[in-house]
Structure formats: structure tokens, C-alpha cells
Amino acid sequence: MSAVLRVDNLHVSVGGGSGTSSAGAAAAREAVRDVSFTIGRGESVGLVGESGSGKTLTCRAVLGVLPPGVAVTGGGIHLGGGSSGADVELTGLDRRGWDAVRGNRLAAVFQDPASYLNPSLTVGRQLAEQLRLKRRLPRNQTRAAAVELLAAMGLRRATAVYDQYPHELSGGMLQRALIAIAVAGEPELLVADEATTALDAAVQAEVLDLLRQLREERGLALLLVSHDLAVVAEVCDRVAVFYAGEIVEQGPTADVIANPRHPYTEALLRVASLGDWRRRDLEVIPGRPPEPGAMPVGCRFAARCAHATDTCATPVALSTVDDRQVRCHRAATLELVGA
Ligand SMILES: Nc1ncnc2c1ncn2[C@@H]1O[C@H](COP(=O)(O)OP(=O)(O)OP(=O)(O)O)[C@@H](O)[C@H]1O
Asked: pLDDT for 230-250, tens place per residue?
């Protein structure tokens, strides 16, 4: 399968801003370290992990929208040459390069759809404008194309929705409208960062269904971020588990869930809304991740790990065990409990 996206040994650092003197310059710290994964055409990959583990900065690096003071400091992000475009190394792009890629080959939806829409324009006008810009449709065709796209996103009474303002739509409808705007340019990859987190469970399931359908029908590749493994399990072929800025386990989602190889993944399974989670108390993973400025040289999870031994204080690389990549000294011997 040809890769739509290839992230190779990505490092993202925060701070390290220039000061006028050496005393004024803040020390940079790595918020994302040595992250690698690939997404094929029509494939979906989930990034999962606790808050602050580096998922969002990884997505933002892919989209070229890192916040001020945060930068890619190593590795590469490669957009593959699919049917619709050439190979592009994203980390080297200038502003014009990004304009050609963003919204055309890459698009994104985030947690709070209302904040990405203009409150004073109807949803339909905002979508029609995207269709005009991205598909170069003449103005007299954009209304019909926009209504068709809104209907394809599962919005009932799409003609009426076209003329509504963002505040007149529910959260689920807004997210569908925003997904319509995101796919208006027929991108190869859609990044969805906690896109269903604020929705109630039933609406969340519907929006996840829509994402699945877009993959199947349009061959759209998906990069989905969630703190909840259950959400990733709904949609993603493969999952990368993040802890303290690193991928600690990566593999086929069903296998990772049934048979975790990293103790952090096992812990994450106990806090995920998987299976009959409504009938059990979701646990909290005891302890906290290491402080960003004080990362241990060995395994970053060791201080919270029930299986840690002295070896875990030494540096640990990502190694391949069967269908899995795991960053754990004990991965080959531990017997962990899946869901
Ligand atoms: N704009 C920023 N300035 C400084 N530090 C940042 C910034 N954005 C993120 N960080 C830091 O980088 C690290 C990774 O954050 P990131 O947002 O990628 O995590 P996350 O896994 O997506 O968490 P969440 O689910 O809370 O968004 C954290 O330590 C965070 O505090």
C-alpha cells in the first residue's frame, strides 16, 4: 500500500526562544520525541494517550500549524505521491507550499467546531466558498454542490441547513458541517483531533460512523487523535500509544487491545470506555507522567509501572515484537491483560 503520510523520527520542541543574552534564552524541551508512523490510502491510524502526551503537537506538525514557540526540531513528515499530487516533504515547506497542501491534500477537524466557523455567515455560504476555492466551481453551481455535500455528511433537510447560521445547529450537526468543509477540497488525509470528544455518546457514534464511511467511500486516510482507546477502536486499523512525548506501542488496533505488550497500554485499557465499561468503575492510572523538564534517561513510564525492574532505569528503544513495535525492556516476557 502506498503511504499517504509518513512521519519519520519526528521531534517537536517547545521553548528555546531566542533571548538577547544567554541568560535570557529559555531552554528548549522536547514535547515529541522520535515519533514514526505511516498511513496508507484509505487507512486510519489512531494516536491515543493521556493529556499532554504529545498527540496534538504531532498532528499540528503534520498540518503545519504549530503554536508560536513550538517547532519541528528533527525528523521528517512526508506526504506521499498519491493519484492527486506529488511527493512533498512538509517540514521544508514555505508559506506558499503550505497553501498548496493545506485544505487540498490535508484537512482537519477539531474538538470545538463552532470556533472554526464564522458566526455571521450561514453554514452553506461557508461551505460554498470552500467549494469555489478548492474545486474551482463556478458560483452558480456551488449552492447545489454544497447541499449535496451536506446531505452526503448525513445532514437531514440539507437545503434548510444550508441557510442556517452556526448557532442554529447542534454540536453533532456542526461537526458534520465542518467535516463537509474539510472534505470540500477532496483531501487525501483528514486529521481529526478529539473531534467527537465534546459530543454525547450517541452523536459521537454517528460522527465516527461518518468518518468510517468517508474512508470506505472516498478512500480518505484518517489520522484520529483521542484520549479514549474505545474511540480509536471504533475507527482505526492501527493505533500508536503515546506516553510522555514518545510512542510506547504501535500495532493493529484489535491486536493491541486484545493483547497489549506495553504496561502503559494495559493501564490505558482499564480506563477506556471499552466493552461493558458502563457497568464497571473506570480506574485512574496511579501517578503522573514525568515533568517535561525532568525526563528520566530510562523508560519514561517506569515510575508508574507495576512491572518495573532495575533494567527499566536504562534507555529503552522501540523494538519490534511480532506485529508490534514496543518501547519496553520486558515486552517479550510480560504477560499483560487485554480487554
Ligand atoms: N503552545 C504550547 N506552548 C508550550 N507548551 C506546549 C504548547 N502546546 C503543547 N505544549 C506542551 O507539549 C506537550 C504535549 O502537548 P500536546 O498538546 O501535544 O498533548 P496531547 O497529548 O495532545 O494532550 P491533550 O489531549 O491535552 O491535547 C505538553 O507538555 C504540553 O504542555
From this structure: 889 989 999 999 999 999 999
